[in-house]
Amino acid sequence: SYELTQPPSVSVSPGQTATITCSGYSLSKKYAYWYQQKSGQAPVLVIYEDNRRPSGIPERFSGSSSGTVATLTITGAQLEDEADYYCYSTDGDGNHIGIFGGGTKLTVL
Amino acid sequence: EVRLVESGGGLVHPGGSLRLSCAVSGLTFSNSWMHWVRQVPGKGLVWVSRISNDGSTTTYADFAKGRFTVSRDNVKNTLYLQMNSLRADDSAVYYCGRVEYWGQGALVTVSS
Asked: For all residues of chain A together, what is the average pLDDT?
């Protein structure tokens, strides 16, 4: 089976930089996408195709990918960034099966 | 404004069936590959299925193969998920969406 691995939790103080990683062999072949999900809400796309930011997403959100690891960086985290973050990709074997990472709870305090 | 509205969720007995619908507006539905994703409250997102823009290609997670069927009506701008032989562990909020946009979800509870 295909897996994407994320740390369960990350904590930062307001204004600091938060870094969330996502590792999986398919990331060497496929793009990573990052979603933010706040309690009781639908997921919101914050990064697509490894490092592209949708319109309306603050510039403090950025993404990168190298080898089998994708990274979401929030530069100058704000209190409102506290949420669960999920990486998403597809399997690297051409089956087009979607995969989510287990999610990372970002705490800003 | 892009809107995706799921409907059809509810309580069903184990072994039963349910069909979810997802009404889409504000985007070119017929050009969009669409997905279903589910989430047990308090747990992570799990990908369920996707369908190509013309409906000719469908892909499923292993747990959905043989039990779930995704389909679409490009005239009605509606996505569907037919779920059969439901089990207790299928209980979750089911979201429809495209990569950039997701609905608010429909709760499915499988219980006797």
From this structure: 95
Instruction: Order the strands of the B58-60 sheet from edge to edge.
Output: B10-12, B106-110, B92-97, B34-39, B45-51, B58-60
With contacts defined as CB-CB under 8 Å, which chain B residues touch A43? 37, 45, 95, 102
Mean pLDDT throughout A22-48?
95
Q: What was the pLDDT predicted at A95?
A: 75
A78 CA to chain B: closest CA distance, Å?
23
Verify whether the Cβ–Cβ distance B100 to A45 is below 8 Å: yes
Single out the residue of A5, A2, A81, A83 nearest to residue A38, CA to CA: A83
Pairing of strands B58-60, A61-66: unpaired
Rounded to an integer, what distance in angstroms lies between the CA atom of residue B22 and that of residue B95? Answer: 9
Q: Give ∠ CA B83-B39-B55 in degrees, rounded to 5.
A: 45
pLDDT band at A99 (very low <50, low <70, confident <90, very high): very high
- The verdict on B61 touching A (C-beta cutoff 8 Å) is yes
Q: What is the residue type of B36?
A: W
Q: Å from A65 to nearest chain B CA?
A: 19
User: A42-56: string of b/e by CB count within 10 Å (b at 16+)?
Assistant: bbbbbbbebbebeee
**For residue B107, what pLDDT band results from cuts at 50, 70 and 90?**
very high
Sorted by sequence, the CB contacts under 8 Å of residue B73 that are 6+ apart come out as: B80
